[in-house]
Amino acid sequence: MKKAAIAVGSNQGDSVRICREVFEVLRKHPAIDILRTSSLYRTSPVGPVEQDRFINAAVLLQTRHEPQALLKLMIEVEKSFGRVRTVKWGPRTLDLDLVFYENIQLDLPVLKVPHPMMSKRLFVLMPLAEIEPDWVHPDLGLSVHQMLNRILELDDQQEIHKLEM
After folding, report:
1. Is 86 helix (H, G, I), strand (E, B) or coil?
2. pLDDT tens across 65-124, in order?
3. Which one is catalytic: 92, 134, 139, 155?
4. 3 torsion bin: left (phi>0), alpha (psi -120 to 50), beta (else)
């Protein structure tokens, strides 16, 4: 089994319910063992498209799937929640991103691992720091915790609030 982290996001429909249901869908999959799930966070959208705030979270898991097969499963889960890919960085019912897979580095047309924007995204780093703060980015040589601290010092534009449940 290989360790991986997935970022979860939604800003259409009942996003809190969707994120919680995604945890359960992944938990029931025979090739996945959920190790930890983060809290849910309300976050500001990033990118040029005007849209509602997101609910974001992260999942740490072990899987028998190779990265490409895990990506395929993630896309199937997105579709099962009504995801239609239209506008890049636009609104969506569900967005699943493979943040890391062990310490493997991939640069394929459809999959880049670690996720190339993870170190710049507060909505990825804050939930990930809850569940795997010591994972070290193979290119940057920084842990999740260090990347989070760096973005908190340098970026005051991204908003994030932990939801109390």
Report:
1. coil
2. 999 999 999 999 999 998 676 666 567 889 999 999 999 999 999 999 999 999 999 999
3. 92
4. beta
Exactly one of 20, 83, 134, 156 is catalytic; which is it? 83
CATH code of the region 2-162? 3.30.70.560
Report how far apart, in Å, the C-alpha atoms of 135 and of each of 17, 101, 129 are: 28, 11, 9
For the entire predicted model, the pTM comes to 0.93
Catalytic residue among 20, 42, 97, 150: 97
155 assigned to active site: no
Catalytic site residue 95? yes
| Confidence label for 48 from pLDDT (cuts 50, 70 and 90) | low
> Using CA atoms, how far apart are residues 97 and 155, in angstroms rounded to an integer?
22
Catalytic residue, candidates 95, 134, 155, 156:
95
pLDDT higher than 80, residue 1: yes
CA angle 31, 116, 17 (to 5 degrees): 50
> What does the CA dihedral 89, 111, 123, 2 come to, rounded to 10 degrees?
160
Query: According to the model, what pLDDT value does residue 82 have?
Result: 83
Q: Where are the domains of the chain?
A: 2-162
Asked about 53 being catalytic, the answer comes back as no
The first and second tokens of residue 128, run together, are 């990930």
